[in-house]
Amino acid sequence: MSIAKLENVHKVYHIGKIDFPALRGISFSIEEGEFLSIAGPSGSGKTTVLNLVGCLDKPSRGKIFLDDKDITALPTSKLADVRRKNIGFVFQTFNLIPVLTAMENVEFPLILEGRHEARERRHLVEEILTEVGLKDFIHRRPNEMSGGQQQRVAVARALVKKPKLVLADEPTANLDSVTGEEILQLMLDLNQKTSTTFVFSTHDKMVMDFARRIIKLRDGKIESDQKVKTK
Hints:
By secondary structure, this protein is of the alpha/beta class. The protein has 7 helices and 10 strands. The chain is globular, with a radius of gyration of 18 Å. 37% of the residues are buried.
């Protein structure tokens, strides 16, 4: 089942009097439960793809579907609703709120949703922090944790709403290779356990080695799209 689909998508950024084409007519589908890497060098368009699928931006031309619903022409406020309800994000810079504990950082998106009582929120947060190996760190603030622990908090925050789709932009960029591999293994384990769809933008070979499908971009076009056999 397709969870997202891009049809002949173009994206042009206007920088002063210069038009910069970031995407040049790309089309592909993301299937439910995939562990997919959007790969390519800087300027290839991979982060733009994540921003479009994540409802953070709109295409200049073409169509984008989420769960078979055309979201291309939705107003910004409606896109924010779709993003909040359906998509989790993991950023390379962690983007944790420094004055909040691990528990409070992970709880924050649930508070914004307003669908859970306080006791239920705490239960969901403790459950996911335990799942990512941070049961003993729930009351620590970001500056009291390592980079790998902070990224685990970020993964927990992305997953606590039980989204269908998690988008990770260069998730290993600020981690050493050992910690990066641990984070990728954690996300792969969660993907296999929960069937949550993960999509990465990366130029890191280690991320591509973990991926089960790799779409390579160059100059805003799809260079290749291949499934990867599990090891």
